[in-house]
Design goal:
This protein is about 40% helix and about 25% strand. It has about 220 residues and is α/β, with parallel strands linked by helices. Strand 1, helix 3 and strand 2 form a beta-alpha-beta unit. The longest helix is centred in the last third of the chain and has 22 residues. The protein is globular.
Length: about 220
């Protein structure tokens, strides 16, 4: 049974290497649906190559992306039209985010790189009254419910790879991302600490090894 499982995992790795797709970008449209139709200022924490920041520009008057990695910030600037109301800086979002209040703050697959409670408190301070914070994060898998969700995610992941790569020809684009590290907090721990910092926060486990957090100031 262990040999079979190993073979299955290797087969899945080969399948996805040939048909890559971005699990984080999968949630970008979901994030937009959580936001008001129009907003003033938006902040994207851990903005990477800027895909989400550019989408936020369809809702916000100005968008600022911040990321620690100079290479991905450089790439984000290259990919962004000069006329777009989007800017990017290299820096630590908890200490170097541009001052002022934001109507929207987003953070995708970045929160597990930061001190969790400190980061949420920082986001809360920067969020304007009535503003919206949306996080798509990753957590450590430990519980039975985690394993059940993961069991559903595997075939769904294969199906999404087929759909997103259907009809694609030629070399696949390379997405620039900063180095990652495994999540250390379980979903239960995330829920407990988030509720202490953000009263009324809504959290849910999601497919593709993600969870979501939504809070309105």
């Amino acid at each position: 049974m262990e040999i079979l499982s190993h073979r299955v995992l290797r087969a899945l790795e080969r399948f996805h290497a040939a048909r890559p797709w971005d699990h984080n970008a999968h949630y970008h449209r979901w994030i937009l649906r959580r936001l008001p139709r129009r907003a003033g200022r938006a902040l994207d924490v851990g903005s990477g190559s800027g895909d989400l920041a550019r989408l936020l520009a369809s809702r916000a008057g100005s968008v600022h992306g911040i990321d620690l990695d100079p290479a991905v910030v450089g790439r984000a600037r290259e990919l962004t039209a000069p006329t777009a109301p989007v800017t990017f800086t290299v820096g630590d979002a908890l200490r170097e985010a541009p001052p002022g209040a934001y109507d929207v703050i987003t953070c995708v697959a970045t929160l597990h790189h930061l001190p969790f409670g400190e980061a949420l408190a920082c986001f809360r301070r920067h969020l304007a009254p009535g503003g919206t914070l949306v996080v798509v994060g990753v957590c450590r898998q430990t519980s039975l419910s985690d394993r059940l969700i993961d069991a559903v995610a595997v075939p769904a992941n294969v199906a999404m790879a087929w759909i997103k790569n259907r009809g694609r020809r030629g070399p696949r684009p390379v997405s620039m991302t900063a180095p990652t590290r495994p999540a250390t907090m379980t979903f239960t721990e995330i829920v407990r600490e988030a509720r202490q910092v953000l009263p009324g926060v809504r959290l849910r486990r999601r497919l593709f090894w993600r969870y979501t957090l939504v809070w309105r100031g």
